[in-house]
Amino acid sequence: MKSLRSTALGLTLCAAGATTAMAGELTIATVNNGHMVEMQKLTPKFEEANPGITVKWVTLDEGTLRSRVTTDITTKGGQFDIMTIGMYEAPIWGSRGWLEALEFGADYDTDDILPAMRGGLSHEGKLYAAPFYGESSMIMYRKDLLDAAGMTMPDRPSWGHVQDAAAAMTDKDAGQYGICLRGKPGWGDNMAFLTTMANSFGAQWFNEDWTPALDSAAWNHAVTMYKDLLDNYGPPGSSANSFNEILALMNEGKCGMWIDATIAASFITTPGMAYAQSPVAITDRGANWLWAWSLAVPAGTKQKDDAMKFMEWATSKEYVELVAATNGWGKVPTGTRQSTYDNPNFQAAAAFADAELKAIMSADPSNSTQNPSPYVGVQFAAIPEFQAIGTAVGQQMTAVLAGDITVEEGLAAAQAAADREMKKGGYYK
Predict the structure, then answer these.
(1) Strands (DSSP E) along 278-399, which ranges?
(2) 3-state secondary structure of 313
(3) Per-residue pLDDT tens for 97-156?
(4) Cβ neighbours of residue 378 closer than 8 Å, sequence gap 6 or more
(5) Is-contact 373 206, C-beta < 8 A?
(6) How far is residue 380 from each of residues 32, 88, 157, 236, 368, measured CA to CA in Å?
(7) What percent of the chain is helix, strand and coil (3-state, nearest 5)?
(8) Which domains does the chain have, with CATH numbers?
(9) Rounded to whole angstroms, how far apart are CA atoms 428 and 426?
(10) N or C terminus of the chain: which is more exposed, having fewer CB within 10 Å?
């Protein structure tokens, strides 16, 4: 494919002859995570190299971002020239013609992108989003606190072992909590974590005939342990905590252990950190998620060429090297390119590198549950109805965690909500 780096801004033909089109302002919707914030700081480098192109950022928390970009793409609102989306949206929206297929030059080296990331962001062999950073989930824990408690952490512990470790590291009088986990409602927030936990207990979102399976014993066991862990060994107000809130608690030294996105490891400043694979109960299938925060261009944008040019820059090997030169190799966006993991400077700077790559490579969206499931996805089901279902279920699970309803009541309400959406979608009557 023709390299965008060698493409001029383009010519517009008019009655008076050919005139050079002026590059416009790119409006980008993104999430308020650390790597995205850093990309905004480095954007002047792109603007300096591309005179005439300016970038405007709309930075939102995860839940608001998902709502805003979904509304914009489905209504053809045209508010954004580039959207930050993930593995749930990219193949579905690409198949519906809502996204532009990527058009990058050979020097972009698409083959360097990890296969799991390429596959999750593609539909019928076409890549519809460029991964800015990729992630799985893993355990991040204070080895110094665990050592002091006389315990160790296996590479792939059981949930029972995690519970024991959380108890051993908890000292509420000192404001020290053994475990921190997401509680804020959202299909990509508390449900991203809870789905992987439930998977390991043998649960699934849907049976093979697409009937919801949220009222199963496996879901009950997982949610009960989740609530017990945070009630007994978690910080106050866990039902309001998402990624950024827990990252702050970790860096304040208040959490002994955090099971969340592998990308978090590059932002944790607390000394004594170590890493292990996500816990298991009765199976390791689907025990750790797979995701990539990625950049995509909505179909029909008038800024397609400039948008592609920015995306190619922001997700390139050269951008990774720019971040390394600016902040050090331990702070580069990870989870996307094999060349990053092959780089000895990155290996030396990132103690989490091997654990992160192992988690990413072990996640299998096509085989994520103990019993056969009809859907693809680890922490989500890749069907259009899932966004509404996951949001509704996440609200119920937050209510359970807050003590407003029982586990049984929450799962019954979740089952009913999922049933309504699946009937509405025509999966059964």
Answers:
(1) 291-296
(2) helix
(3) 999 999 899 999 999 999 999 999 999 999 999 999 999 999 999 999 999 999 999 999
(4) 195, 196, 199, 286, 288, 289, 290, 363, 364, 365, 368
(5) yes
(6) 21, 7, 23, 28, 10
(7) 45, 15, 35
(8) 4-135+290-349 (3.40.190.10), 137-288+366-424 (3.40.190.10)
(9) 5
(10) C
**Phi and psi torsions of 219, nearest 5°:** -65, -40
* 163-193 residue pLDDT tens: 999 999 999 999 999 999 999 999 999 999 9
Query: Closest Cα to residue 265, out of 354, 365, 151, 165?
Result: 354
Chain centre to alpha carbon of residue 299: 23
Residues in the chain, pLDDT under 50:
1-22
pTM of the model: 0.90
| SS3 label, residue 80 | coil
Residue with tokens 């460029």: 130
**Residue keyed to tokens 């998620």:** 289
Q: How far apart are CA 259 and CA 241, in angstroms?
A: 13
The pLDDT assigned to 300 comes to 83
Tokens of 296: 């995509």
Six-digit token pair at 60?
Answer: 């939102």
**Contact criterion met (CB below 8 Å) for 293 and 39:** no
